[in-house]
Specification:
The structure is a homodimer of 125-residue chains. By secondary structure, chain A is an all-alpha fold. In chain A, 70% of the residues lie in helices and 0% in strands. Chain A has a domain of 69 residues: Orthogonal Bundle (Multidrug-efflux Transporter Regulator, Chain: A, Domain 2). Chain A is elongated, with a radius of gyration of 22 Å. At the A-B interface, helix 3 and helix 5 of A face helix 3 and helix 5 of B. The first copy, chain A, binds a DNA duplex (30 and 30 nucleotides) through helix 2.
DNA sequence: ATACTATCTGGAGTGAACTCTAAGTCAAGT
DNA sequence: ACTTGACTTAGAGTTCACTCCAGATAGTAT
């Protein structure tokens, strides 16, 4: 798969795909004899994982660490496990902040809806 | 309340408090005769709202727009309602991305846990 | 009055995550 | 062989959200 195809399939710019590889957020991608990227299944699985993690807001730095550990082989499995558990915790925390904010938004929305319906704003903020 | 007190109470740096005010993410804060910030209850409510929204990842730009609308008075209530609904939608989307990533993390974590316990890694990624 | 600490402003600097540019190489069509 | 378009790299530029700094002014203690 060419970089163009991967870019279109996963909606990640070619620049970003090259950037991810350059900084080590995904391992080096398979190349043709002349040096052009030719994404194989494993390369694509890394791309997809990277996209998923980034979309949830996990820092690039963390993925770089995870990739580095993975490339070092099975000895790093406990370290990888710990890294994943930490990231899980931080996502749960982020989720609870979002929930808090959603509650607040819902409250404001309901007040504004009443205001729009009745023309009366009970109080201002 | 002085900027120092607000900074400590809400764990936001003084620089950030001034920055929020400067860019319009909160309305102008009450000042003493000599120009020093003296946060009143409403000022503090804005600070708290700003902190809540930012902690969920809502862009500064959005809060600026919301504050601007609020300062324009009740005519902008429908616009504010729409803005809040849009932000609610984007938070829900963000939450579902986090859930997706959490599922993936949980799957990886369970596999790594088995690997650590048994010393056998079923497959690599 | 003199220190000393807190706060003020405007503007420059920082780190994260891209995003773009330039100059060169590769591949496909005519 | 030549043109056109896709791909390559290294490195510079951009955006966002702060964060720091310098120089000035304000408030407090002795």
């Amino acid at each position: 798969m060419t970089i163009k195809e991967v870019s279109e399939k996963y909606d990640i710019s070619q620049d970003t795909l090259r950037y991810y590889e350059r900084v080590g957020m995904i391992p080096p991608v398979t190349r043709t004899a002349s040096g052009i990227r030719d994404y194989q299944e494993d390369d694509i699985r890394w791309v997809e994982l990277a996209k998923c993690m980034r979309s949830a807001g996990l820092p690039v730095e963390i993925m770089i660490e995870y990739v580095k550990l993975t490339l070092e082989g099975y000895i790093t499995i406990p370290a990888r496990l710990q890294l994943l558990k930490e990231q899980k915790a931080s996502l749960l925390e982020q989720k609870s902040k979002i929930d808090e904010t959603l509650e607040r938004l819902n409250y404001k929305i309901s007040r504004y809806e009443i205001a729009v319906e009745t023309g009366i704003l009970t109080w201002e903020d």
